[in-house]
Automatic annotation (TrEMBL):
Pfam (any one): DUF389
SUPFAM superfamilies: NAD kinase/diacylglycerol kinase-like
Annotated TM spans: 199-219, 340-359, 365-387, 399-424, 436-454, 461-485, 497-518, 525-545
Protein name (record): TIGR00341 family protein
Lineage: Bacteria, Pseudomonadati, Bacteroidota, Flavobacteriia, Flavobacteriales
Alphabetic keyword roster: Membrane, Transmembrane, Transmembrane helix
InterPro entries named among the record's database cross-references: ATP-NAD_kinase_N (IPR017438), DUF389 (IPR005240), NAD/diacylglycerol_kinase_sf (IPR016064)
Length: 621
């Protein structure tokens, strides 16, 4: 016997659409919930009910061990999708009539209310989807529709326990509970091994510490195809368990299959193999003993001070470090900001080595001086003082930087007065025309220096940062300019030093901000001042960069060209007043003075301005 259970309002639909599919089958229609009835062990109760009535009826049927068939209904989308049954009434009827034995499925309950799809606790609106039109486009639409609410998100504190044994006291943006992987957008990406009859459910505890972390995860989750992520993000805890209790000191807002609820405590449990389903379910699989084990991956979730900080305010855009996390770093940076005898001695030695290396035109010697130079440390300390607006660290840092700068200029200029050589070597020349490219190097070095200080495990790479940013060599060249009383040498090298200094301070500070060591409100004044300094430095850098572009253009145009049947080789262009051009002319005979003057005039016409021409004549065959 088939009992067709339906609401009185749906009688006409049942008679017109369902009865024709059961022409030769013994059946009886029953109005729900008005009519009471008792079904035998061999009878099947076929429901045409909404989610609301199925929540009432299915637990009763499970207790009585009654066989149930569920027909798709316009208002039972959660049940149909959650139990993995077909959407076509004809297909469902065929399955019910052809199946000889029922499939037993677990039932998941939240505060004694059956869950067909998921329980969403807290601020997990951004992960919800449209159950009528579940597709990639709809998920993207939902994401962008709700993204405006991200700035108001905050953590709630939860005590999570099982069978009176506390698992963790943490804070979370929200918690998602599902029985199998296809129950929600997030679960599809994170839950790999699940079934409707494995006796357990999965709990995803979503605890991002900043909005950037959350948005990046959401964007990855929305990739088309619904594929799993290779690795669960560290801010998501995961439990696989048979029962669970979630408590809070205040009322917890949550939804069960889209229905809003409130409670101070949430109890979740699985009734194993309690529902006898007289039709196929795509989620009903053979039990895999390896997947029946409980699991607890909550070690990366916030606890203690971190939990308290996250529950006090809305979710920050950038990560924020706790006092525990940056206490040791602050201690190191405060020490580095102080002027000590060791610092002064190392600055003197690195300057002397750099100066001798510049005169000797030796790159290895100059690199050694870069490694010895300690000036990068107070600069990073100053950057931290700027973003934290720590006046003591700022004062000590700037004093130490100025002392280091003064010592370097003093000793390099003193050595220059002693050495009876006035020759601009290639190593000196390389530091006389800083450009925007040098600012790019300073920016990357500032980020690297701050990151290396913040991450204890990579502190050894500070030597590499010192080599990359090269603070002492331009200071030594500036000192050489003082010793020679040459403004062009001093100004070019000192501009390079200021470029490195401003770039490191600005972007080391920004790196500390991004890593969560300071709030933006406190750092903005210091960042504005540094930005002004960078803007002032950028003007001469831009002019220098344009000059280098012009030099390269002239060199490229002249190299390999011919003038009066002579081939031009080894072109070098240097800006001055007028422009200086040196080149080699290759021809069959030596050149006379008149021929060189004629060549000079042709080159000036091509370049468009007067030049000083230096010519080397070479005979070629």
């Amino acid at each position: 016997m088939l009992y067709i259970l339906h609401h009185p309002d749906d009688r006409e639909t049942v008679e017109n659409d369902i009865f024709p599919l059961l022409e030769n089958t013994e059946k009886q229609t029953i109005d729900y919930p008005e009519t009471e009835f008792e079904a035998g062990n061999d009878d099947i109760i076929v429901t045409y009910l909404s989610d609301e009535f199925l929540r009432e009826f299915l637990p009763k049927a499970a207790k009585k061990n009654q066989k149930v068939g569920i027909l798709p209904h316009p208002e039972n989308t959660y049940t149909t999708k959650g139990l993995g049954i077909a959407n076509d009434p004809k297909e469902v009827i065929e399955e019910i009539l052809e199946n000889e034995e029922a499939h037993t499925l677990d039932m998941l309950y939240c505060n004694d209310i059956p869950i067909f799809q998921s329980v969403n606790i807290g601020n997990v609106f951004i992960f919800t989807e449209d159950h009528q039109n579940n597709n990639f486009v709809r998920e993207v639409y939902t994401f962008f529709k709700n993204i405006r609410h991200l700035s108001s998100l905050s953590h709630n504190s939860y005590v999570i326990s099982s069978e009176d044994e506390k698992i963790i006291h943490t804070s979370a943006l929200g918690i998602i509970v599902v029985e199998h992987a296809l129950s929600s957008v997030v679960a599809r990406r994170l839950v790999s091994e699940s079934s409707l009859n494995d006796g357990m459910f999965t709990v995803l505890i979503i605890s991002p510490t900043n909005l950037l972390q959350l948005i990046w995860f959401l964007l990855r989750s929305l990739l088309p195809g619904g594929k799993q992520l290779d690795k669960t993000p560290s801010f998501i805890g995961r439990l696989k368990i048979a029962n669970l209790h979630i408590k809070n000191s205040s009322e917890i807002e949550f939804t069960i299959d889209g229905e809003k609820e409130q409670a101070k405590e949430i109890s979740l449990r699985v009734e194993p193999e309690s529902l006898c389903l007289a039709q196929a379910s795509k989620y009903c699989t053979e039990k895999d003993e390896a997947n029946l084990k409980k699991s607890n991956k909550t070690d990366t979730l916030p606890t203690g001070e971190k939990r308290e900080e996250l529950t006090k305010r809305t979710l920050p855009i950038f990560p924020r470090a706790t006092t525990e996390e940056f206490q040791e770093l602050f201690k190191v940076l405060r020490e580095n900001s102080k002027t000590t005898s060791i610092y002064v001695v190392m600055m003197i030695l690195s300057t002397l080595i750099a100066t001798f290396g510049l005169f000797a035109d030796s790159s290895p010697v100059i690199i050694g001086a870069m490694i010895l130079a300690p000036i990068i440390s107070p600069i990073v300390s100053f950057a931290m003082g700027m973003v934290r607006y720590d006046t003591n660290m700022l004062k000590r840092g700037i004093i130490t930087i100025l002392i280091g700068t003064g010592v370097s200029l003093l000793f390099s200029s003193g050595v220059t007065l002693i050495i009876p050589i006035k020759l601009i070597t290639s190593e000196i020349d390389a530091r006389l025309s800083p450009t925007l490219l040098d600012m790019g190097i300073a920016v990357a070095s500032g980020v690297a220096a701050a990151y290396a200080h913040a991450k204890e495990g990579i502190a050894k790479s500070l030597a590499g940062v010192a080599i990359a940013v090269a603070l002492v060599p331009p200071l030594a060249v500036a000192g050489i300019g003082i010793g020679w009383w040459d403004w062009q040498v001093f100004s070019g090298a000192f501009l390079l030093y200021l470029t490195n200094l401003a770039g490191i301070i600005m972007f080391a500070g920004i790196t500390f901000l991004v890593l969560g060591f300071a709030p933006f409100k406190r750092a903005k004044l210091g960042l504005v001042y540094t930005l002004i300094l960078i803007g002032m430095v950028m003007v001469p850098l831009s002019l220098s960069f344009n000059r280098i572009k012009k030099e390269a253009s002239i060199t490229r145009e002249l190299e390999g060209s011919t003038v009066n049947e002579l081939v031009i080789r080894d072109v070098k262009v240097r800006f001055g007043d007028p422009l200086r051009v040196s080149l080699t002319l290759v021809g069959p005979e030596n050149l006379s003075s008149d021929e060189i003057r004629e060549i000079k005039k042709k080159l000036e016409d091509d370049i468009g301005e007067p030049i000083n021409l230096e010519v080397i004549s070479a005979r070629g065959f």
